[in-house]
Amino acid sequence: MMKQTRLSLSNFDYAASQQKHRRKNTIYKRAAEYSLECKADTLVAIQIRKTGEIYVFDSTGGRWLGALSRLDGCYPRPIPVTMEDIIPGI
């Protein structure tokens, strides 16, 4: 039987990756809460420099994303995040 090996990420790399992911999700959650509590439209875009990935949260359900047509030419394509993704059950 072969022993399972972990990916090449060290514990430090894994912890740093987790922390970045949590911070990104916290930013989105705060933007969603602000949108609900203050009755405001919010748009948050995060681009990961190392990979070029773009994550976009739009509280309007896509109205602002349509206005940001320059993101359509980006590679990799932007990853949209919705209110339902951040706060389930809304």
From TrEMBL:
SUPFAM superfamilies: SRF-like (SSF55455)
GO biological process: positive regulation of transcription by RNA polymerase II
Molecular function terms from GO: DNA binding; protein dimerization activity
This protein's name: MADS-box domain-containing protein
Protein species of origin: Aspergillus sydowii CBS 593.65
Lineage of the organism: Eukaryota, Fungi, Dikarya, Ascomycota, Pezizomycotina
